[in-house]
Write a structure and sequence with these properties.
heterodimer; A: alpha+beta; OB fold (Dihydrolipoamide Acetyltransferase, E2P); five-stranded mixed β-barrel; 8 strands; B: 2 domains; two-stranded antiparallel ribbon; 8 helices
Chain lengths: 271, 199
């Protein structure tokens, strides 16, 4: 019979670190408990029943015991190991980027069920279909929304006037779009094309599987990438380390054309 | 005034910096050493002092050794057409104990950890390529850990090695000896099914 200290949590393993010779400290992101860390004893031992369940990018059900310091994971069942995602370098790197974004944008013990469901949906989509630039940009945009920093794209965030179909600007510090007049007095305002504004507005109201169908050229994709990361960087106030890895993989894929990243058509698509 | 004598406090502080060693364990070890015979302490001190001074990285495989090249790279009986890639020097002894590998090694000294900013330039991947371009190597065995980061490293190296026309293999994943099927997770079991062999 379980004691009141026992509890069960479904969650995604965001990261882990090594403790002692055989143990791991696992950081889980769960819908009800939020983000928390727990010890998985013996998880590094070959043949440990906990080992595969507490590996990064795993969705599982974890039986835990509350303790004064870190909780203890006593049993775990894998609900989805995202095996396709883990069998592909590009997909796995995108999954790690998504997990690092969530890890960086959440604090311990603050539940955020919509964000959890969004991360799970994104990992399932990457596992099932793959990951392209649209998925990454959509994930960044909607992550901002889920943590309360949804970019304001309806009207100028400075003067409140409606945005006309001309080249406007986007400011990460102001939190949204600026009309051409207000952009002149905003030092971090960057040009926002009409197409980019349309795509961002569309993405704020659609699902991931729909968002990935948007066709765009390299210039527009690069513009959205620049805006997206500037927003994320401004909100999180730190660099996302796995982004450098994605950039590297993408550039090397152009040279070797052997990785899964090279199968992403848009990066090779002429404008 | 400090409650603990200065030499003990210094030893506890030094031991506490070792991986997996908490302050309590460090203190326990320090008092154990205090009560140990002088000869044992001297031997320990001498081995610690010689650790850095007498060991070198093998310039070929980057294993930690007492000579360059290391005993494995210098052994003319080893199969030079096979290179087994491992994450750490400590991965070599268990592989050697199997008696199944008679090729050479390449020690990466870590693995790719994108979320911690550890990329290919931070481990010894670049040093692998000249060895492979010599034309002597016919097979690369990837023996990285079966973790997300180990797999990331293995897949990245495969991407670099395959265009050179060298066969790339990876250690099989599956059920450990003595395990019970009932308690195996779906990932391990799935890989065991995929890697099944004719019996």
């Amino acid at each position: 019979m379980g004691s009141s200290r026992d509890y069960q949590a479904e969650g995604i393993v965001l990261r882990h670190s090594v403790i002692g010779e055989r143990d791991k400290i696992v950081t889980l992101f769960t819908p009800d408990e939020g983000k928390f860390s727990a010890v998985a004893r013996g998880a590094r031992r070959p043949g440990s029943s906990l080992g595969p369940s507490v590996e990064m990018l795993t969705y599982g059900r974890f039986q835990c015991v509350r303790r004064r310091a870190l909780d203890l994971i006593t049993q775990a069942t894998i609900l989805d190991s995202f095996s396709n995602l883990k069998a592909d370098l590009w997909r796995m790197s995108c999954g790690l980027y998504a997990c690092e974004l969530v890890d960086s944008s959440t604090v311990d013990g603050a539940p955020n069920r919509p964000l959890f469901e969004f991360l799970l949906e994104a990992l399932m989509e990457i596992d099932r279909v793959g990951c392209d630039d649209n998925v990454l940009r959509f994930f960044e945009l909607r992550l901002l929304e889920h943590i309360g920093f949804r970019p304001s794209l309806g009207c100028c965030v400075s003067c409140g006037s409606s945005l006309r179909p001309v080249e406007n600007s986007l400011s990460a510090t102001m939190g949204g779009a600026l009309c051409p007049d207000c952009a002149r007095s905003c030092p971090d305002a960057k040009a926002l094309s009409v197409s980019a504004l349309k795509v961002l507005r569309f993405w704020l109201g659609c699902r991931l599987d729909v968002a990935r169908r948007v066709k765009m050229g390299t210039a527009l994709s690069c513009e959205l990438e620049e805006h997206g990361y500037r927003f994320v960087r401004n909100v999180l106030q730190r660099d996302i380390k796995s982004r450098a890895w994605l950039v590297r993989l993408r550039s090397e894929a152009l040279l070797t054309s052997t990785s899964e990243a090279s199968t992403i058509p848009r990066w090779f698509e002429a404008e | 005034m400090s409650i603990t004598a200065e030499p003990i406090a210094r030893l506890v502080q030094a031991l506490g910096k070792l991986p997996g060693m908490g302050p309590k364990s460090a203190q326990r070890l320090a008092y154990h050493l205090l009560l140990s015979p002088d000869a044992e302490i001297e031997e320990l001190a001498a081995s610690l002092l010689s650790l850095k001074g007498s060991l070198v990285f093998c310039s070929q495989c980057f294993n930690v050794a007492d000579s360059d090249p290391c005993s494995i790279c210098a052994d003319p009986q080893r199969d030079r057409t096979v290179i087994c890639i491992v994450e750490r020097p400590s991965d070599i002894p268990p592989l050697e104990r199997t008696g199944k590998l008679d090729g050479l090694y390449h020690v990466l000294h870590g693995c790719l950890r994108p979320a911690r900013g550890i990329g290919p330039d931070d481990i010894r991947i670049r040093e692998l390529l000249p060895r492979l371009r010599s034309g002597e190597v016919k097979e690369v065995i990837l023996a990285t850990n079966p973790t997300v980061e180990g797999e990331t490293t293995a897949m990245y190296i495969r991407q670099l090695v395959e265009p050179l026309g060298i066969k790339v293999t990876k250690l099989a994943r599956g059920l450990p000896y003595g395990a019970e099927l009932e308690y195996a997770d779906e990932m391990t079991l799935g890989q065991a099914i995929n890697s099944r062999q004719e019996f």
